[in-house]
From TrEMBL:
GO terms for biological process: RNA modification. PROSITE patterns: PPR. The keyword rRNA processing does not apply. PPR repeats lie at residues 76-110, 178-212, 280-314, 378-412, 479-513, 580-614, 717-751. The keyword Repeat applies. InterPro entries: E_motif, PPR_At4g14850-like_plant, PPR_rpt, TPR-like_helical_dom_sf. This is Pentatricopeptide repeat-containing protein. Keywords: Repeat. PANTHER family: PENTACOTRIPEPTIDE-REPEAT REGION OF PRORP DOMAIN-CONTAINING PROTEIN, PENTATRICOPEPTIDE REPEAT-CONTAINING PROTEIN. It comes from Rhododendron griersonianum.
Length: 846
């Protein structure tokens, strides 16, 4: 206006006008002032140029701000402060720190309190504690610690990095405290999960009559967002109503979030309806996000449709929330079309959400097309696509994308690195995983919880349990994910005792045990056949209320099945709230393995009628059921049904089931003919199945043929040698047995040492009976056992005695057979107690 009146403007006026445009966040007005500055020759003025830098920085045009900064040498601290604080506001914290180093290196200017507070804020945002401590030391040397802004930034640094004792020490030293320092302390306690201390600090703040703003209230409401904090949440809500802060949009949004997190959706909706200006997109976005995060998809979608009905245009935040909860691909296509029409697809958050959505449905082509359309990719978009490839089994593409990301000078964050490590876990790419581990060490982020958890999982899945344990032990804070990964790693690699001990440790730390961890532990117990431990875990599961969880229920079914308790399998199956394919298959397989073929097929038919389609694993269970129950015609029917009704091509396991079915039924020639006419070349499993059938029916000639085929396909597999020698032993051809055993030794193949154990009771003086485990191993020449008394011997049944005699005869003929071990175990158990004893061993026993 003054310019149009012909009044001459000076540098101070232009600088003030630019600062006003920045404060008002009015880039359009700022550009007009900028044009006048250039036109009237004030561009080189330091004060004016600082205003231009501040304008560009607050308008998210940091590159333009940097260009202006470097165009003319900056000789005043105001310009440096403008560009450093601008970088921090644009979340380019490393750029801010590089600028600070450059400022110190030039040595022309001394940073003031404004510079130092911005640099400390950057360190806090990056959680770079060591760097922050260095700046803190520099502050102390310069005597700048008394400044309220610098002191507040120091408090926020330690609080953000989780060092609350240090933060409290610095806070207590402050001569004057402001709302930012109080809020920093409260936020720090909240971040560390210490809601009690956060609320105590807030009460102290109110008692001291300190100024409280909407950001303080937001932190306090976050502290109340826990299941046990409902009473405190309502009290804070009442206080907000009294103070007049209820009309603030930020506070209302925080109230909605808080109530949704404690499950009080009715109160969330009450706060939403009491919002004066329902035209604010932000409040709608928070409500949709609240429903989405609590997996209430229907409510979220209804809210989104209501927005459209009200004539509002959902922004990128609302749209991204809706995309994240899409559960039908058709609906996802509709939302994608809407984003294109509304011009939202260009937003990086929307593009990333679409990538994740398509990856979730396995539509990687569409996902990658969306990813390529994102103009300015950020870490979220890169991570979304890398995760999509990794989770869908395309690890090589995930690795290549990670390399592309590094090549384009993008710096991966913890989420990205966790996604890459997941890809390493899926493909068991240990060397690549080690390279990524080295990268995290160089970056100094190897102690981040998310990265540590991913590393533990990667090393566990790759079988490198020593490295997994090493990373686990070095974690500053062990979380649920890291415990779950290591427990399942131990279980899957056969380290059962370690898995159980670690599970017990997790319970002692009072961490919430998830269904994945429990499933892993149940799997470990099932490998040990320890029914007693399994029932104890089942009781623990019932206390936690996880018995209806489908993964836990399926693991319980498999546990009880392997321990021979089919009735408990059925109970566990009925306890599952919503059955999936895995739980149905587990029940079918359990019935099949216990010879209840009719029941297994009945379960299969119920599953099919419920609309769940079987997969190849389900059909293995179905065919196994036919095999164990001698249902030959049904077996052929279901084998044909795989291809005809479901388009599933039978594999080796399916064909082996049919061979087993024919073999158990005594139709050995038909089994041989079936193998000969298979559409795929039979593997060792198919021939081994025929060999087992030959042993069952004493067919030496066909057994020799089957054994020969197995030996050709698997020269180092001792199973064929042992099975053939057993066939000869059954018909008394001991010379032939010894010949086969010598041939086996000549191949260098070794049989895993057999072991057998049972539980026995031992009586100690003045003590109750204590249970201990007696074990017998093949290599042991002598088993220390006191000769039983006459009374004990009377308790041995005739069948047990016969088994002992047979085992002794075979032991004299063939060293290394494990039957005597079973006999010894049963014998000692029988003479020690009159009760039934479960005998456990590592080789199957007929």
């Amino acid at each position: 206006m003054h310019s149009s009146l012909g009044i001459e403007l000076d540098d101070f006026t232009y600088g003030s006008a630019l600062s006003a445009c920045s404060a008002l966040q009015s880039p359009l007005c700022g550009k007009q002032v900028y044009s006048l500055v250039v036109k009237n020759g004030f561009f080189s003025n330091g004060y004016v140029r600082s205003g231009i830098i501040e304008l560009f920085a607050t308008s998210s045009c940091l590159e333009d701000a940097l260009r202006v900064f470097y165009d003319v040498s900056c000789e005043n601290v105001v310009g440096w402060n403008a560009i450093i604080s601008g970088a921090v506001k644009n979340k380019e914290n490393w750029v801010a720190l590089d600028l600070f180093r450059e400022m110190l290196h030039l040595g022309l200017l001394t940073p003031n309190s404004y510079t130092l507070s911005s640099v400390l804020t950057a360190c806090a945002a990056l959680e770079e504690l060591d760097l922050g401590k260095g700046v803190h030391g520099w502050v102390i040397k310069r005597g700048a610690g008394e400044d309220v802004f610098v002191a507040t930034a120091i408090v926020s640094l330690y609080a953000k990095c989780g060092f609350m004792d240090e933060a409290m020490k610095e806070f207590s030293r402050m001569p004057v405290r402001n709302v930012v320092s109080w809020t920093g302390m409260i936020s720090g306690f909240v971040q560390q999960g210490d809601s009690i201390s956060a609320l105590q600090f807030f009460r102290e703040m109110r008692k001291m009559r300190e100024e409280i703003n909407n950001y303080t209230v937001t932190s306090v409401l976050t502290a109340c967002a826990g299941p046990a904090m409902v009473k405190e949440a309502i009290q804070i809500h009442c206080w907000i109503l009294k103070t007049g802060l209820y009309s603030d949009a930020v506070v209302k949004a925080s109230l909605i979030k808080m109530y949704s997190k404690i499950g009080e959706f009715v109160l969330s909706e009450v706060v939403f309806k009491e919002t004066e200006d329902l035209k604010q997109l932000g409040i709608w976005g928070v409500m949709i996000s609240a429903f989405a995060q609590n997996e209430n998809s229907r409510k979220a979608i209804d809210m989104f449709q209501r927005m459209l009905y009200e004539g509002l245009k959902p922004d990128e935040f609302c749209t991204s929330c809706i995309i994240s909860i899409v559960y039908l691909l058709n609906f996802g296509w509709q939302i994608h079309c809407y984003t294109v029409k509304a011009g939202l697809v260009l937003f990086v958050s929307v593009g990333s959400a679409l990538c994740t959505m398509y990856s979730k449905f396995g539509s990687l082509v569409e996902s990658y097309e969306v990813f390529q359309q994102i103009v300015e990719k950020d870490n979220v978009s890169w991570t979304s696509m890398i995760s999509g490839f990794a989770e869908n089994g395309h690890a090589n593409q995930a690795f290549q994308l990670f390399r592309d990301m590094l090549f384009e000078k993008n710096e991966p964050d913890e989420m990205t690195l966790a996604a890459v490590l997941t890809a390493c876990s899926v493909t068991q790419s240990l060397n690549t995983g080690k390279e990524v581990h080295g990268y995290t060490l160089r970056r100094g982020i190897d102690k981040k919880i998310l990265v540590c958890g991913a590393l533990v999982n990667m090393y566990s899945k790759c079988g490198a349990l020593d490295m997994a344990k090493k990373v686990f032990d070095m974690m500053p804070v062990k979380d649920q994910v890291s415990y779950s990964s290591l427990v399942s790693g131990y279980a899957q690699n056969g380290c059962i005792e370690e898995a159980l001990l670690l599970f017990h440790e997790a319970q002692m730390t009072e961490l919430e045990i998830d269904s994945f961890t429990l499933s892993s532990v149940l799997g470990a117990v099932s490998l040990l056949n320890r029914l007693r431990i399994g029932t104890q875990l089942h009781a623990h599961i019932l206390k936690m209320g996880l018995e209806s969880d489908v993964s836990v229920g399926s693991s319980l079914i498999m546990l009880y099945s392997k321990c021979g308790s089919i009735d408990d399998c059925h109970k566990a199956f009925n306890g599952i709230k919503e059955h999936d394919l895995i739980s149905w298959t587990s029940m079918i397989t359990s019935y099949a393995q216990h010879g209840k073929g009719t029941e297994a097929l009945s379960v299969y038919e119920v599953m099919r009628k419920s609309g769940i389609k079987p997969d190849s694993v389900t059909f293995v269970g179905v065919l196994c059921a036919c095999s164990h129950s001698g249902l030959v015609e049904e077996g052929y029917y279901y084998l044909n049904s795989m291809v005809k009704d479901y388009g599933i091509e039978p594999g080796y396991r399916h064909y082996a089931c049919i061979v087993d079915l024919l073999g158990r039924s005594g139709r050995l020639k038909e089994a041989e003919s079936f193998i000969t006419n298979m559409p795929i070349k039979p593997d060792s499993l198919v021939w081994e199945t025929l060999l087992a059938a030959c042993k069952m029916h004493g067919d030496i000639e066909l057994g020799r043929l089957a054994a020969k085929k197995v030996m050709e396909l698997e020269p180092c597999d001792i199973g064929a040698y042992i099975s053939l020698s057993n066939i000869c032993a059954d018909v008394g051809q001991w010379e032939e047995v010894l010949k086969i055993r010598r041939e086996m030794k000549g191949t260098g193949a070794k049989k895993d040492p057999g072991w057998s154990s049972h539980r026995k009771k031992k009586l100690e003086k003045d003590k109750d009976k204590v249970e201990e485990i007696a074990s017998f191993f093949r290599w042991e020449k002598k088993h220390e056992m006191k000769f039983p008394s006459e009374e004990s011997l009377r308790r041995i049944s005739l069948s047990e005695l016969l088994m002992l005699l047979c085992a002794n005869q075979q032991m004299q003929m063939i060293s290394g057979m494990s039957s005597p071990l079973i006999a010894l175990s049963i014998f000692e158990g029988a003479v020690q107690t009159a009760e039934d004893i479960p005998v456990e061993k590592n080789w199957p026993m007929t």
